[in-house]
Every structure is written in C-alpha cells, then in structure tokens.
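The aim of this short unit is practical: by the end, you should be able to scan a pair of folded records and say something sensible about each. We start with the first protein, listed as its amino acid sequence and then its structure tokens.
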Amino acid sequence: MIILQAGALFAEKGLHGVTTKDIAKACGVSEPVLYQHFVTKESLYNELHTLCKGDTATTKKALARREASTETLCFFVYLVTSIVTIHKLLGEEELSQDSLNIVRLMGFSFLEDGRFVQTVLKDCIGSLFDDWQKNYKAALKSGDLEVKSADARDLWVAYELMVGASLFHITGPKLLPQLHADESVLLERTALFILRGLGVKESAIKKHFDPKAWTAEIQALLHS
C-alpha cells in the first residue's frame, strides 16, 4: 500500500518533489507511522523497483513453459514491448497503472541521479536478460538471423528503444497521432522494428510472429 501510493507520487513529482508528509497523507497515516516502515524517504524510494515484480514474474512464468527458439524470441520481444511501451500485459484493456508509474519514474530518474533506472535494469529486465539472450542464440543457431552473431549489446539497444517509445506514448496521441492513436498498431510496429533490428529474417517473422496466440496464452496463464 505504502509503496503503491509513494510510487504514484514519485511518478508525478520525482524524488525531490515529494516529502514524507506528502507520502503519509496519501497513505492516510502519520509520519511517525510511515517511519516505522521506512526510515527515510530515500529508503522508500529504493524499494519502488518492486512495482515491476508482477509483470516480471508473469514473463518468467511464460518463458519457463517454452523451449528456447526463434518463436520464443519473437514472443518475448512482443510481450516486453507491450509491458514497457504501452503499459499493458497482453489482452489487458486498461493500462497498468504500475507500469505507467514505472515509466514516469524512469523519466524522472534519467533527469535526477539514475538510481531507479539502475535498479530496474538490474532487478526487472536484467533478471530476464539471460532468457532473452538464450532465445536470441537459439534463433541464430536455427539460421533465422541475418547477423553472424547474437550480440548481447543489441538486446540492450532493443530495450532502450522500448523505453524510448514508452516516453512518447505516455504523452498521449497528441504528439504523434499517426502512430500513438492506435495502441495495437504501435505495439506491433515497435515489436517488428526491434525484431528486424535484431536481424530476424522476414521468413522467420512471417512463420513465428503470432500476437493473437500469444495474447490468448498470457490470458490463460493469468487465469490458471
């Protein structure tokens, strides 16, 4: 409860724009009660990375059910693009407020000391990175990549593109209405752009890129 409320405040005003009094008021408690849980505002801020744990756990669970392959690589890119860029798990109609807050927190963090970004990179996307690279290498081994090596640095560039797209997306469709007015178009075109940037062949994309099946899979997983 405290982390959720504090996360929303930090996402709106940044680390330096929020006081412990603001947090206590939002949580409906006194500052002394807040200090019983978190000694300082900074200690609370350092726990905000837990906001991404739910989506990370869902992604890990979905990957655990799959073999390393080109199809899983495509699935992973599409799923993570959905979470990071349009702030939704596959099949969700309403945006995930936690995911949206994470993007806003990252935006402030880029302008402040970078602590939140570093924690997310380590505990969220970082915890999925080995799986991502394993599937990237499987795609290379299968002959489904145009490139000669599955360079991990390209995966980090791909993630940066997802985050960059998300910063445009949180402004709403007014900034780039030709793309951001339709989230499904934004999601598909961003995921495909990343896959092509990673060197996935068009023939492999045509064979393995199946958003409808993936959406049904994630929804079944969430309700199992």
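Turning to the second protein, read its sequence before its tokens, just as you did above.
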Amino acid sequence: MAIPSAVQIARDLVRMETINPPGNERECTDYLGALLEDAGFAVACHDYAERRTSLVAVLLGNGGRAPICFGGHVDVVPLGDAPWSVPPFAAEIGDGKLYGRGSSDMKGGVAASIHAGLVLAGERRGAADIVLVVVAGEETGCDGSKYLAGIGALPKAGAIVIAEPTSNYPYLGHRGALWLEGIARGKTAHGSMPELGDNAIYKAARAVAKLEGFAFDGRPDALLGATTLNVGTFAGGININSVPDLARFTVDIRTIPGHDHGEILRILGTLLGDEIALNPVVDVGPVLTSASDPWVREIYEHMHKLRGETPEPRGAPYFTDASALTPACGSPPTLILGPGEMAQAHQTDEFCHVDRIEEAAEIYAAIARRWGGLMQ
C-alpha cells in the first residue's frame, strides 16, 4: 500500500471539522487508526464521551529499550467572529502554506507523526516500541489525555515528543494552567430600592480589584518565566433595574514548576474571602525537561546537523497534553517539537508551512530510529 504523504494526511485531517466544543474527533481517529492498522500497528480507541475518541497505536520493537511516544491532539478551537479569506476546512495550499483551522495547531504535527510511523513500520524494527497517541479534547483542558491516563491506556515510556507548534524547534517544556471561575451571590431587589438587596456585582468587583494587584511569590523560571494571573471574563445581573444576585468572573493562571495548584487555590481563597466561591475549570501542570538530559543532548545534536546551529533551551507559553501524558508514562524526558507556527495558533486564516510538515516527519522518523538504536 502506498503511504500518503505527511501533507496529504494533514489536508485530510483539516477537512474534518473537529471544533471543540463539541469536538467530534472520531472521524479523525477512525481515519488515522485505519492507516496505522494497515501498516502493522496495534490500535486501541478510547471514548471519554460520545464521539470524543482518542487512540493509542503501538508498533512493537525488538525489546531492550523503553518505548518512545509521539503525542498530539485533533480537536480545534472555534473560528471566531472575524471572516476568513480562505475556507477554514478546505485545506487549500497556496504560497507553500496549508491553510485551515488546525493546520498549525496541530493537525500538521499529528500528520507528520503518523507519516513517520507509517514509514518506520516498513523498516527494520529497532529496540523500542513506537507509540503514537492521538487525543481528543486538548483545547478544553487535556480531557482526552487525562482519560487515557486514568484508565491506564498509556505505557511507561523512555521519551516523549509532543507535536505542538514550535516551527520544528525543540522546546523543553511549558507552563501549567489553572483556570478558575469565581462566583459571587447576593439577593435581588428592585433597582429603585437597592437597600433591600445584596449586590453580587459589587462583591465580584471587589474580588477582581484584589486580584489586579496580586503577585506570586518566588523567582521566575529561567525558561518559563513567572507564574501569571489574568482575569478574562466578568458577567453579572439580569437587567439594569434590578439588584444582581449573581456575578461570575474567570481567572487564567499560568504556572511554573514549584507553584502547587492546590496551594494557589488555597491562597486565593483566603485573599478573596467568603464572598467568593472559586471553582477550578482547567487544572493542568507544567512540564520541564533539563537541557542536560542525555536524550535532549542527542536531539540538539541532530538539530545542529539538520540546521547548522545548536538549539538554545526554550520553554513554550501554552500548555500541552504532556501535562497528562508525561506523568502517566512515568515522567520521561519530554520535548515539544512540531511544524506549526506558534503565532498561527487560534488565528483567523491559520496556516502551516508545507515544507515544515515534511521536515517534521523526517525529524520524528530520525528521532525514533536513533532511540531504537538504528542510527547514531
């Protein structure tokens, strides 16, 4: 069977509309699972909700070394209000770019890892299993990867590559995310008699004012920077002439290693007091691998040969499925390395450079061969 190119796989995936919510990733995983099964992978699919399907595909090696795992997600964010100049799900190619929602974030990366797996399936087996993990529901808090971790569907791995957008530059980790919803409750009354009510918006506003001046203790991480806090939304009331009995706001906290999410929640709860109920919406931890790790040094060496320069340690500002996959796989060294453009993620007229998708597939295959002892 002829192997489809990495770009063709990417185009096929972009044409499958997987906006989350609601998601509907099953079409993607069915398509990819069939390709991988035909090539000799053992494929297992897992639904954490209706049509919210993730897959784990394994190509057995000869033993002697822990598996290497490649991971990515196939859900995408909504299109937004701004009009697109290209059809968002037509996967058109122009000026060396593949256009479409998810092309950079991150169906181009998933396609490259799948293509690499298909190529490797036709070669001599190395010492290690090759594991491809394609998940649903990353954009709303790594739901699919958390589910796989919870049911024990992931093997212990020796190394992990997450194919999120980095322009094929190896990143050592990313910050975590703790998203909170703050809820203030009061008592409604007629707007002409506010003394009879209890204004929930005032309570929420006082809380937000406290958060504006809040600063986290501790030194910033050299790669990931500081833990940050941003109030993203604020809403309350039902009409202008009533005292509001409910107000809500949301808080986006991005964390570095050493800042425990449970402790952050406790500190903020004490700061805001009994007027505010704080509820976690997304809770995913940071991931960071040392630049001195032997495998990382090998990847840096390979990238030097490929590009003529040794990579400098970098950390990504976004979170990835590594938050769930890395601890579930035994906390091996983890790199974020994918063909997409960071700046294109969630953008109108999103695109990914075609040559980067092809390059990523070659990089992933080389990483797997080296890990399996098939090249030096």
